[in-house]
Design brief:
By secondary structure, the protein is mainly alpha-helical. Helices cover 49% and strands 7% of the residues. A three-stranded antiparallel β-sheet has the order 1-2-3. The structure holds acetyl coenzyme *A.
Length: 459
């Protein structure tokens, strides 16, 4: 018999099944809680809630572990390629050499985008952020390419995934070229996935781009490190939107929008902006650290902290190592790297950051790597999006195939006004309003433990 949890409410006892995980936290199954007890759970930010059962990636925030389909990120970083890692995430197993060649061929065959999509780009205002453009363009793909029908052959499904993986990279490079007023460079049959991207970004008829193997390797590694990360904000957005059975493109577009935020994927851009600001202020990290520690100041040290990792982010370690090697190997001097090192050293010996479990995350060094690759600042989050795409696809696919899957529809703990009458316009006076709603919207709720059925009260 499986393990059970016992919940006692007002003296009445309920048994809840426990789902055993392969690794990490087991889960109390509360799917019948409301039906049986009339209660729901409250978990802002969902930090204690499993939204699905998944077998794609595993992370242990305390130990700093990340695995894709069981394989440690360190091994994939060392030995795999981004295309192979994408295959692994989407299909569950490492490909044989024949499967890998077929997959690479599919990516090649579907790398061009419909010429009419260029007109869309041309109508965006100059200076529009490429993440906004990318989210719109991915949604627009649905108009040009069919979605996956409910009952389609595996070949058809794989074609759609390959199409998206390949076209997102082309669209990203196109958005940069058009924003710069440069002619678009088309993908080439003779180049690998990563080399193709660099070529589409930087090749020119007046200065042909010379493919550098180290750069290709660095980009491969950058994208492998970003390829999946369990139920993070953007992946949850893909699953939630996907649960309404929207087409794949719309679900991925939602993921791109979520990733844009500076607390999530937008942090790689914000880190470099912060390091630049420190540099422009004379390079002294102390005032920035002081601001981050001041609880009355909303300033955060970008690139530090993580919702799950309370130890070193394993991707951050690999990224840091690659950053040092790559810059040294190419004789690149970036003053921001010196500042980053000083900031990290100071932070890691400061009790405020240690006590709060704030360590460098993947974004802390990734921006410096991207700068060395010649990627412009406002394309940083786009680079993250290309890397995260195989993870989003794998998670979308898994949720689509999950027989327990449901339309995502969380509940809420309502703490607003009780029923009240509508006041005609002439009788309303702002001064008569209580400050009830104000307290609520700032989320000031406390739990009263005496009466389970009116458990939440306003403080
Ligand atoms: N600088 C200063 N203080 C911080 C930072 C930071 N970077 N991160 C967290 N804190 C503070 C929190 O405000 C909190 O203070 P409180 O107890 O007074 O409320 C305390 O440290 C503990 O925070 P956590 O609960 O560990 O962090 P949380 O889960 O709330 O937030 C997050 C995680 C959003 C990533 C946060 O650390 C952050 O904003 N970091 C900077 C942005 C960033 O680098 N984002 C990229 C994350 S990785 C990724 O998405 C790819």
């Amino acid at each position: 018999m499986g393990k059970k949890a016992r919940l006692i409410i007002n003296g009445k006892s309920y048994e809840l099944p426990i789902i055993t995980a392969t690794d990490g936290n087991d889960a109390i199954d509360i799917s019948r809680l409301r039906e049986e007890t009339g209660l729901i759970t409250y978990d802002p930010g969902f930090g204690n809630s499993g939204s699905c059962i998944s077998s794609i990636s595993f992370m242990d925030g305390e130990k700093g572990v990340l695995r894709y389909r069981g394989i440690p990120i360190e091994q994939l970083a060392e030995q795999s390629s981004f295309v192979e890692t994408s295959y692994l995430l989407i299909n569950g197993e490492l490909p044989t050499s024949e499967e890998l060649s077929r997959f690479s061929l599919l990516l090649n065959d579907h790398s061009l985008v419909h010429e009419d999509m260029r007109h869309f780009f041309e109508r965006f205002p100059r200076g529009a952020h490429p993440m906004g453009m990318l989210a719109s363009m991915v949604n627009a793909l649905r108009a040009f390419y069919p979605e996956i029908p409910e009952r389609s052959e595996e070949d058809e499904i794989n074609k759609t995934f390959a199409r998206l993986l390949s076209k997102l990279r082309t669209l990203a490079a196109m958005s940069y070229r058009i924003s710069m007023g440069f002619p678009v460079v088309y993908p080439s049959y003779f180049l690998s996935y990563c080399a193709n991207f660099l070529n589409m970004m930087f090749d020119s008829t007046v200065r042909p781009y010379v493919i550098d193997d180290d750069m290709v390797q660095a980009l491969n590694l950058f994208w492998i490190l970003h390829a999946d990360h369990e139920q993070n904000c953007s992946t949850s957005a893909v699953r939630l939107v996907g649960s309404a059975r929207v087409n794949l493109y719309a679900a991925i577009s939602a993921g791109i929008s979520a990733l844009w935020g500076p607390l999530h994927g937008g942090a790689n851009q914000a880190v470099v902006e912060m390091l630049q600001a420190i540099h422009d202020n004379g390079g002294n990290v102390a005032p920035f650290i002081a601001r981050a520690k001041d609880r009355t100041d909303p300033f955060l040290l970008m690139g530090f902290g993580h919702s799950v990792y309370k130890n070193y982010d394993p991707r951050g370690r690999i990224m840091k190592d690659m950053c040092h090697k790559f810059l040294a190997g190419h004789n690149v001097y970036d003053p921001l790297l010196d500042i980053a090192k000083r900031l990290e050293e100071t932070v890691l010996s400061d009790p405020f950051f240690i006590d709060n479990g704030l360590y460098p995350n993947v974004d802390f060094y990734s921006g410096i790597v991207l700068r060395a690759l010649g990627i412009p600042l406002d394309m940083f989050t786009v680079m993250f999006a290309i890397g995260r795409l195989p993870g989003w696809i794998a998670q979308w696919k898994e949720s689509r195939e999950d027989e327990r899957g449901k339309l995502h529809r969380p509940r809420q703990v309502y703490c607003g006004y009780e029923e009240r009458d509508y006041l005609p316009l002439g009788m309303r006076h702002a001064a008569d309003r209580g400050d009830n709603s104000d307290a609520l919207f700032r989320g000031k709720v406390r739990v009263r433990r005496t009466n389970a059925h009116s458990a939440v009260a306003i403080s």
